[in-house]
Write a structure and sequence with these properties.
Blueprint: E1 15-23, E2 28-35, E3 41-48, E4 52-57, E5 63-71, E6 76-80, E7 83-85, H1 93-105, E8 107-119, E9 128-139, E10 155-160, H2 161-169, H3 176-190, E11 198-199
Parallel strand pairs: 4-9
Antiparallel strand pairs: 1-2, 2-3, 4-7, 5-6, 5-10, 8-9, 8-11
Length: 211
């Protein structure tokens, strides 16, 4: 495979029947009867998710803005980068990312790029996440956003890229968006550079949006 370019491609196998046995506040669970290549039909249960955005906010001292938040399903307080749901169908992901950075950190950024796009758990959930790189950070104007629930206990910090990479490789940091974002940042620097990243309004087939 050396020198071969690989690329994910869209494909949709026949679904004979579908049902939604659970509907929650933000997500639901769907069961599809999917036709396999040999003609058999199997059940596939998966979480239906509206999609998310995340922001790797990098300051002039080469530190990343991170926050520590309790995550009940894994019974951990995790260090993460600012992130949130795409609450409105067709919502522009850049606008959602700017909102999350303001609400969770009271910070704004001058320069935005697409760092990477990922499916977080494609075997059991259709969640798609767009991770942005934000630079040129400054304090946001106006009052701070009123937080609630798990966010009311949130801690904020700025941590060097070097320390984050060490923590990821040591198995001390586990949040998907933080891990993918930080390692993608390092890869981009070692490749064509951060200014070669896709523009903030680049198309996103997984979650189409209007500019």
């Amino acid at each position: 495979m050396t020198g071969t370019t690989i690329k994910d491609t869209p494909e949709e196998w026949e679904v004979r029947a579908t049902r939604t046995p659970f509907v929650g506040n933000k997500t639901s669970v769907r069961t599809d009867d999917v036709v396999m290549p040999n003609g058999t039909v199997v059940h596939r249960d998966y979480q239906v998710h509206p999609g998310s955005v995340a922001v790797l906010a990098l300051d002039d001292a080469d530190r990343v803005l991170v926050l520590r938040q309790y995550r009940h399903p894994v019974r951990h307080k995790l260090w993460e980068i600012p992130a949130g749901l795409l609450d409105v169908p067709g919502e522009n992901p850049l606008h959602a990312a700017q909102r999350e950075l303001y609400e969770e950190a009271h910070v704004k950024a001058e320069d935005w790029r697409v760092l990477t796009d990922v499916y977080t758990t494609a075997g059991g959930c259709d969640e798609a996440v767009r991770i942005f790189l934000a630079r040129g950070l400054s304090e946001a104007e106006g009052d701070r956003f009123e937080v609630e629930d798990e966010e009311s206990d949130m801690e904020l910090a700025r941590v060097s890229v070097t320390d984050l990479v060490r923590g990821v490789l040591a198995g001390e940091l586990h949040n998907n968006c933080l891990v993918v974002g930080v390692l993608s940042l390092v890869a981009a620097r070692n490749g064509d550079g951060l200014d070669a990243l896709r523009p903030a309004g680049a198309p996103w087939p997984a979650r189409p949006f209007e500019a």
